[in-house]
Write a structure and sequence with these properties.
By secondary structure, the chain is mostly beta strands. The chain has a domain at about 10-125. Helices cover about 15% and strands about 35% of the residues. The chain has two helices and nine strands; from the N terminus they run E-E-E-E-E-E-E-E-E-H-H. The chain has helices at about 115-125, 150-160, and strands spanning about 10-15, 25-30, 35-40, 40-45, 50-55, 60-75, 80-95, 105, 110. The strands form two sheets. Strands 2, 3, 4, 5, 6, 7 and 8 form a seven-stranded mixed sheet that branches. The longest helix has 12 residues, at about 150-160. The protein starts with 11 loop residues before the first strand and ends in a 16-residue tail after the last helix.
Amino acid sequence: MMQPKMTKRHPINVADLRRGLGQRRIVEIDYLFDPVEVVSSRTTADPVTGSVVIESIERGVSIVGSVSFSWEGECRRCLDLVNGRSRVDIDEIFQSPAPADSDIIELTDNTLDLVPVVHDAIALALPLVPLCRADCQGPDPDRYPTKSAEQIEAERASERGQDPRWASLDELTFGE
């Protein structure tokens, strides 16, 4: 994975917050990453923006907030360019020492680096296979028609035929 670039990269010192439980600080996010790509979508060159609240908790700090980012990709049906803007929530805990086998991030020297947290959040929020619009029929709808999951399952069931061992279940009726 490529190292992310950011417009304002500096560790955030939280020593002053940790002097008292419940103390808070709002931090504005304005990072510029190299493109993050997942299957058929990727982030654009626009910066990732948002804000988080850092709050002092026992043995560490919690980070809660959200970031917004722009993305683009190819429609999974027609392959036209699709773009959008997404918002993803950030909710992490940094603790010293971090318990083994947990999702808690180690807090070292009372400093935070939010870049990996934001990078991972946007990578997980990218659409895997974007769709330009819900009724997109693709490049050749007559040759490759789209079907709903229910239509596909009904076709498969009729092709398979019914297992005679289950036929008696068709006669059951439930509360009328």
